[in-house]
Amino acid sequence: MRQSIHPAYGPVVFRDRAANYAFLTRSTMTSEKTVEWEDGNTYQVVDVEISNVSHPFYTGTARVLDTAGRVERFERRYGKTG
After folding, report:
1. Which of 3, 24, 54, 78 minimizes the number of CB atoms within 10 Å of its CB?
2. Which residue, among 42, 46, 51, 41, has the nearest Cα to 29 in the 3D structure?
3. Contact by Cβ (8 Å): 44, 12
4. DSSP for 9-62?
């Protein structure tokens, strides 16, 4: 790799404000804010709106559409064909 063209890669805390959840990982993202982590070190913190803890796909709280009810309502309104 060529030197001095890549961003710095280091430890960063990502914090999901909606779920009050944070995790430490490595990233090229930077932030002015810092937080003291469980190990006693201070890391940059990046606030995110959604993570695997609060996303409906991962939590299983996604809404399922009632497709059977829609079909029945359509058939009642316009009649069954065939």
Report:
1. 3
2. 46
3. yes
4. -EEEEEEETTTTEEEEEEES---S-EEE-TTS-EEEEEEES--TTT-HHHHT--
Residues 37 and 24: beta-carbon distance below 8 Å: yes
CB 22 within 8 A of CB 53: no
- The model's pLDDT over 27-76, given as tens digits with 9 standing for 90+, comes to 999 999 999 999 999 999 999 888 878 766 666 665 556 666 777 788 88
Give me the residue label for tokens 């890549």. Answer: 6
